[in-house]
Amino acid sequence: MSASPAYTSDVAFTPAVKAIQTRKGSRHGYARMEQAGGWQVAISVELADFIAAQTSIYLATANADGQPYIQHRGGPAGFIQVLDAHTLAFVDYAGNKQYISAGNLSENPKAHMFLMDYAHRQRIKIWGEARVVEGDEALIARLMPQGYKARPEQVILFTVTAWDANCPQHIPVRFEAADVTAALDARDARIQALELEVQQLRAQQAGSTPHG
Fold it and tell me: What is the reported pTM?
């Protein structure tokens, strides 16, 4: 068995990474982060809330030879669920039947989830291991978003090893179409209310003006 890493961030900060950090001058700062407790390993309330609001994620896997692959997964807010302090899960919907992620996970469980919130310029990186669960209809029923028009095929269970939140630098501000539509509808309703108020005030003013 391999020894446990000294720090939670060692899942990403390998000796090769630390060597480059040392050469480029950032190792001292990250060493202080490590000694202060490093990255979190449990799903906090704040992370659970962030995950519950997401409608889109990227899942990274690699095959036995190390060839990486990134797959997008989306759904209504809440499609990724927290099962416990270390486990995330979501229904894997039927798609183009390439099964690259599933094949990769069958020979290499290492995985990564990347969550981006463009509206609030926040991003979360989650390292861990994942596996595909087939044929568990009860679990699919538990995780399937109600009323969502997609055909469930299987479930992805993701065990969290460590996670980190990035700074907002260079993240462009973008909004979900539904949020923009709701904001525009609210604006239009407000404009209509103000126009009606103006018409009523003009009518009151005209009625109170004495005629010569």
Answer: 0.78
